[in-house]
Design brief:
TIM Barrel, six-stranded antiparallel β-sheet, alpha/beta, 2 domains, single chain, Immunoglobulin-like
């Protein structure tokens, strides 16, 4: 009898261990989300901590009425500083002064527009803006987000001393999955820990750089001379920051080059180049301007259907630099149905005369995807997507003057 009792106890303990391990194995990120790079809007680039529910409702209204939703944008993402304090049970609260109706009511409003609502938190004790972080409260916060109906979480990396990045993001991934509400998980640790190498099964996108700033080719340093010194980066700086990571991108897992600065003070051509290159690199297209007072030109840039189609192509292949000379890059991106996107980026301040003999290129092979384009034996039609004009075909060399900071953006199709 004693031996039988011991055997029963052992079996019960074994069952508990197996159940525990099984629960750990079954936890994962939500599948079938972000199969193309997410498109939406985020509050940080323009507003920082100056946010409130009236503004967020207005952004949702404009995303619908402006045609941005129809163009593919769907997320309204509230960045840092929406937080109040935690209640006596540790549950995170909203800032009641700025969000008097509560987050659930705001999510319901955004959902009523056919859009989705995103929030921000941080893996550390505090967010970058000094608000309560999620360290030690991951599962509790995830349950709260699920109760509010949140669809997207940007998870930052401030105040994370002593934490392992992969482990911290894995914990929040499991918490979100256990909470049960499907949510896009955006990893924002600035590329410091090479997330592209470990985050495919943890998040749906991961930042490749520090924060963006609205300039063409600059670095803006913060807290200079302190141990917390960091930099914001211009468009070209971010474009050049990471090499040989395109193999990590694909449906459900994207290299994120940060929220966009289109409409935030750069020139028309710089905005178009910025938008083109984010599309070519299959980066999420998250607008960062004030949608309520954007110009017609900014709206036209953000809703260009052909550039968006390059970004949202179902193959999910990140583009690659094919050739560079004299400050001019040629980038290529294989698309579905045998089409290719081609972006000719003039990094120079002055205009250049660009000459490109397609036939001389012969057969171009993307070694990553195995996709090929035969420019010698197959005629391709050429479309300039920024002026919506056909430029003939690839049987003749392309000769174009490209202005400083402009990107000639083409679709090649049979």
């Amino acid at each position: 009898m004693f031996r039988n009792r011991i055997l029963k106890i052992v079996l019960v303990l074994f069952s508990l261990v197996v159940t525990s391990l099984s629960g750990q194995v079954s936890a994962k990120k939500f599948d079938d989300l972000a199969l193309t790079p997410p498109m939406g809007w985020n509050s940080w680039n323009t507003f920082g901590c100056e946010i409130n529910e009236k503004m967020i409702r207005e952004m949702a209204d404009i995303m619908l009425s402006s045609g941005m939703k129809e163009a593919g944008y769907q997320y309204i993402n509230i960045d840092d500083c929406w937080h109040g304090e935690r209640d006596e049970n540790g549950n995170i609260q909203v800032n009641a002064q700025h969000f008097p109706s509560g987050m659930k009511a705001l999510a319901d409003y955004v959902h009523s527009k056919g859009l989705k609502l995103g929030l921000y938190s941080d893996a550390g004790w505090k967010t970058c803006g000094g608000k309560p972080g999620s360290r030690g409260y991951e599962f509790q916060d995830a349950r709260q987000y699920a109760a509010w109906g949140i669809d997207y979480l940007k998870y930052d990396w401030c105040n994370t001393e002593g934490l392992n990045a992969e482990g911290a993001y894995l914990t929040m991934r499991d918490a979100l999955y256990k909470a049960g509400n499907p949510i896009v998980f955006s990893i924002c640790e600035w590329g410091d820990n090479q997330p592209w190498e470990w985050a495919k099964d943890i998040g749906h996108l991961w930042r490749t750089s520090g924060d963006i700033i609205n300039c063409w080719n600059c670095e803006h340093k913060h807290l200079v001379g302190t141990e917390n010194e960091w930099s914001s980066w211009g468009i070209l700086k971010i474009l050049d920051m990471r090499h040989n990571i395109r193999q990590y991108a694909g449906p459900g897992h994207w290299n994120d080059m940060d929220m966009m600065e289109v409409g935030n003070g750069m020139s028309k051509l710089e905005d178009q180049s910025h938008f083109t290159m984010w599309a070519m690199l299959a980066s999420p297209l998250i607008a960062g301007n004030d949608l309520r007072d954007m110009s017609k030109q900014t709206l036209a840039t953000l809703t260009n259907k052909d550039v968006i189609a390059i970004n949202q192509d179902i193959l999910g292949i990140q583009g690659f630099k094919y050739h560079t000379a004299n400050g001019v890059d040629v980038w290529l991106k294989p698309l579905a149905n045998g089409r290719w996107a081609m972006a000719v980026l003039n990094r120079n301040d002055d205009a250049v005369d660009f000459n490109f003999d397609f036939i001389e290129q012969g057969v171009i092979v993307d070694e990553l995807s195995g996709k090929k384009i035969d420019l010698k034996n197959t005629r391709h039609q050429i479309k300039n997507v920024w002026n919506n004009k056909m430029l003939g075909d690839t049987t003749r060399p392309l000769q174009k003057k490209i202005q400083g900071h402009e990107t000639l953006t083409l679709i090649l199709s049979i």
